[in-house]
Amino acid sequence: MALRTLNDLDFKNKRVLVRVDYNVPIKEGKVSDATRIEASLPTLKKLLSEGSSLILMSHLGRPKGAEDKYRLSPVAKKLSELIGRDVRYEAASGPTAKEQQSFVAVAPKGSITLLENTRFDSREEENDPEFSRALASYADVYVNDAFGAAHRAHASTEGVTHYLPSAAGYLLEKEISTLSKLIKNPESPFKVIIGGAKVSDKIGVIENLLDVADEILIGGAMAYTFFKAQGGKVGKSLVEDDKLDLANDLLKRAKAKNTKILLPSDSMCAQEIAEGVETKVFPSDDIPEGWMGLDIGPDAIKTYQNSLKDAKTILWNGPMGVFEVVPFNTGTNEVAKTVAHLDGFTVVGGGDSVAAINKSGLADKIDHISTGGGASLELLEGKTLPGVAALER
Ligand code: ADP
Ligand code: MG
Description:
The protein has two domains: 6-173, Phosphoglycerate kinase, N-terminal domain (Rossmann fold); 185-380, Rossmann fold (3-Layer(aba) Sandwich), CATH 3.40.50. The strands form five sheets. It has a six-stranded parallel sheet with strand order 5-6-4-1-7-8. A six-stranded parallel sheet has the order 12-10-9-17-18-19, sandwiched between helices. A three-stranded antiparallel sheet has the order 14-13-16. The protein has 13 helices and 19 strands. Strand 17 (313-317), helix 10 and strand 18 form a beta-alpha-beta unit. The protein is an alpha/beta fold. It binds adenosine-5'-diphosphate and magnesium ion. Adenosine-5'-diphosphate binds next to strand 16 and helix 11.
């Protein structure tokens, strides 16, 4: 079923309850990275241009009750700077507390009000109907633009949709349409680069993509679980010993589905993870005792670059090595450069991979950078996100 979007509802002079993802890093009482706030501006501006008043809500962190350090005051300040208007905010014990209700009741036409942290009220995560109804009572319509929270059935993402006409904002709409196309009908050749620390985090994604991808290029620590499963020697590389059978099983299933899985032929290795230590390149299935694979090697980099050349669609999730430590960032940087300069449609997702691409200064050369973390992974696993399903009813 189709997702309802901003085109499907009337916002003229309406009070609009908007779920945004303002779960941003705060340092010394200030927002230290405003990417998520900036990303919400197109939706907010569109709604304001219709003469509506906005009542915004978001969670921040994992507070236990109304903890001062999780108040949304720094967010209100930053949003006001970025949007160039006053943002109404009043500290409260929760978003539906009495004082908050009277504060919202006097919101002028065309104003922006930011509610207090939704997670100050434990009923948020319980998806409590009474709490959802109280939130819904603030407005005439509801817009969800918080992709990063769409995999959770909480009051502010799912509960409120039972009480108000609801639609997806621009950000949520773009994430869903882009990622759904990848798993449903990507233009082929579709090549997927998967890395990171654990196979167990990405198994669902690899399984689901076996059906649609032409090639899956594996990097990061998870590669060593595959090598060990096939009887290779991996020294003291990070391995998930309880996932060896599963790794073999994935390889078998890939073969049956005619999806090629590429493993890195060589690895850059060291005896400890630190800058300036001695490094050596070994075949990834023949790493000596005491050494560990910390990045894909020069041969693997070349193979992967070659393989990616003809790709029409590319999805990258998870770094190729311990990119936080020089020189084990080499594989990740080379893949970042390669992906950035491909002609195909490129998508990068995952907290650390997105951090790596931002650090490399190549982010603007990627067609879609997914902001979702857990939500992107669940979508790529083929799961239905409750916050999204609620906008399709
Ligand atoms: P993402 O956030 O992009 O989904 P993950 O969280 O799955 O990525 O994995 C990132 C982590 O994996 C990084 O902290 C990185 O240091 C670690 N990592 C990657 N390759 C290796 C390796 N060969 N050995 C140990 N850790 C690794
Ligand atoms: Mg991560």
